[in-house]
Amino acid sequence: MSAQPSAESADAAHFDVVVVGAGFAGMYMLHRLRGLGLSARVYEQGSGVGGTWYWNRYPGARCDVESMQYSYSFSEELQHEWNWSERYAPQPEILQYANHVADRFGLRRDIQFDTRVERAAFDERRNLWQVATSDGKAVTARFVVLATGCLSNARKPDIRGLDRFKGPVYHTGHWPHHPVDFTGLRVGVIGTGSSGIQSVPVIAEQAKHVTVFQRTAQFSIPARNAKLTDEERSWFRANYPEIRRFAREEAKNGIYTELPDRGALDDGDNERRAKYEARWQHGGLTFMSVYNNLALDQAANDTAADFVRDKIVEIVRDPATAKLLTPGSYPIGTKRICIDTDYFATFNRPNVTLVDIKADPIEEVTATAVRSGGNEHELDALVLATGFDAMTGSVAKIDIRGRDGQTLNQKWAEGPRTYLGLMSAGFPNLFVITGPGSPSVLSNMIVSIEQHVDWISDCLVYMRDNAVAAIEAEEDAESKWVAHVNEVASATLYPQADSWYMGANIPGKPRIFMPYIGGVGPYRQICNDVAARGYEGFAMT
Ligand code: N01
């Protein structure tokens, strides 16, 4: 492996590693590769770094993991010099942080922006990946790392007539780079997941009227966002060693928080309610960590779900609207829980209407309206908060061919198959960062990204030191891992929900729980043990 790109032929550059994507995963991967003296080229379809934070610029977009924890830990200097302004950083600030990291570590010179990787084919004879990009060029690389993100393939719904709508149509995951002004406009928002729930209150403050089209009511917990004080930042900095260690090793989801020591039914009604109330007042994702069995036991889950349902009824003044906003068809937390600022209270505004498209599905979009249940909802602008083809969608867009010309899409036709979420048998020297079969979206993404990047980096060093040309997941190890991922998921309530975790939001997508729910600590230990045993379950040649 070389330190500099070398010309394999006159027209094809060669790199040790091609990385796809310059979000948080791709940026850190590049930084580590540089540190190892490897040559790398990152391809990024956007015009800048930041991945999800580059694309999702919708009003109200912010992270639902607290900013002091949703940040890289790999550089002591970085984590001490950057000042987060709020408990939950808004999208522009996270993007600024990504740009700061790119500048600080001089990453841009190895990133080619505005370029998609279209094809990657493994040349078995030479143990090389041939990579073709949207600029019509081709390069070769020993390794390809997919840092394509779990929620990066925005999904436009198949609604009849959508293309006929005369006004602007925005997808939250592809928001324009210029400010969008909704002043005086009648705006329709389709979708009430995290993106819809964050954007509706902000759009409602500006627009003349907002019509929210809801298919499934969502559980949402108040964020209680606030400015961070110097004292709070100092506390985090002083305690970072323990906070980061805990997030990596002990927390199930990569977030430093108090761990529950009992189940919901171990407390009496009053005590339980007081605990939920305290977490509701505290705000944020830790609501689901009040008890240790909320994801496992229906009766325990019901207590948390009922608490939130009661809150919705308390907040929303119109009983019919409150009833519609009250989720009932799935256990709380089994669709990704939302974190909001004034979402439910927004329905008390005179300029906000809720339309139940479960009862009255959208029939079509006309030039000026959305029609459902025979009613025409006249609109000037439309916001699609309809989510993503999650976890596999961005990988599937690339034509990836492994051994014997098999495509990854063929191999994953019945659902993604990976060993540890890191590699797929038949695709040597191809790594996925936070791939399906790893904790990924069930965790603080940056914790999981850093773990994968470090594991891959160590693996590359091992290969260099041991003169190994290719690494590949073994079929048997992969099958066992896939079975384990499914087994752990089926012991929980998660498979009950029609969620994007299950691929249920994409018509025709196999219904499989894609992330690994065993927790980031145990998962890290498994990955470390595999490496310590000479990369057990991987064939090295
Ligand atoms: O997407 P979603 P999202 N007709 O898939 C509805 C992360 N994230 O962009 O539930 C009508 O959750 C769909 O209805 P249903 C976070 O992990 C994080 O909001 O399928 N409606 C649903 O209401 C999150 O979970 C942050 O019945 C249609 C909505 O659209 C993930 O990204 C912020 C429809 C889609 O919800 C995805 O969130 C934002 C159709 N054809 C996102 N198709 C933070 O960090 C879909 N829907 C805070």
Describe this entry's structure for a reader.
The chain has 541 residues and is of the alpha/beta class. 31% of the residues lie in helices and 17% in strands. Strands 1, 2, 3, 4, 5, 6, 7, 18 and 19 form a 9-stranded mixed beta sheet that branches. It is globular and about 70 Å long. Pfam families: Pyr_redox_3.
Task: Please sum up the structure shown.
With 541 residues, the protein is α/β, with parallel strands linked by helices. It contains 15 helices and 21 strands.
* Approximate helicity band: 25-40%
Number of separate helices: 15
Which small-molecule species are bound to the chains here? 3-acetylpyridine adenine dinucleotide
Oligomeric state, counting identical vs distinct chains? single chain
Taken from the alpha-carbon principal axes, the silhouette is globular
Which stretches of 5+ consecutive residues score pLDDT under 50?
A: 3-11
Strand content: 15-25%
- What's the count of strands? 21
- The chain-level structural class is alpha/beta
The N- and C-terminal alpha carbons lie at a distance of 16 Å
Rounded mean pLDDT is 96
What characterizes the major β-sheet? 9 strands, mixed
> What is the CA-based Rg, rounded?
23 Å
